[in-house]
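Progress report, Aim 2. The chain analyzed during this reporting quarter is listed below.
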Amino acid sequence: MKPKILVVDDEPDALEVIGFKLREAGFSPLFANDGLKALATVRAERPDLVVLDLMLPELDGLEVCKILRRDPATAMIPILMLTAKAAEVDRVVGLELGADDYVTKPFSLRELVLRIRKLLKRSKAADEPGDHLSFGGLEIDGPHHIVKVENQPVTLTATEFRLLLILAKRRGRVQTRERLLQDVWGYDTAIETRTVDTHMRRLREKIGVAADYLETIRGVGYRFRNET
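Predicted structure tokens for the chain:
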């Protein structure tokens, strides 16, 4: 089946152009022109990915992102934000709320499709055998995408889960921001490294007492401690 991509934008021309490009690329596009319709469509259709504009009527994109991430049934759906070029604060807040990636307007349709493919590939990547890791009160079940802290389940996005899993599998070794951008986000060239930092901050908040395993190496990147 073709992957279903929900495009949320209040500009009819944008929906038409993006929808045409997505069909051409082999996707099945769905559309919503405000935040409330977006939530209803996600719950009814369970799309494989959401392309979410932040400036929306009824309910803005940041609020939509927050609601989707709060619900375990939709928390793992990848979200690609569309933001104005100058709206750096919105991009940072969106990443803090759990968006997986962003594209700034104006953007090329080719770039948008490439970002969508990378996110889908990442969220559906087959887990390597033996990806069931345990460190004190932290458990990471790779095949089932489950994380528990002190035996309590923690809801992570697909990107947060992959970030934690990669760091845990490489425990004791420093991972630069550039390396994480390549291995978690699939970027071949350097981009803004704040993406890594905002996801790491959110991940630490979610895993609570287990956050001590995630060590910041100032000026370089991050490392999963062998011991805490």
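The chain has eight helices and twelve strands. The helical segments are 12-24, 35-45, 61-70, 88-97, 109-123, 158-169, 177-185, 194-207. These observations will guide the mutagenesis work planned for the next reporting period.
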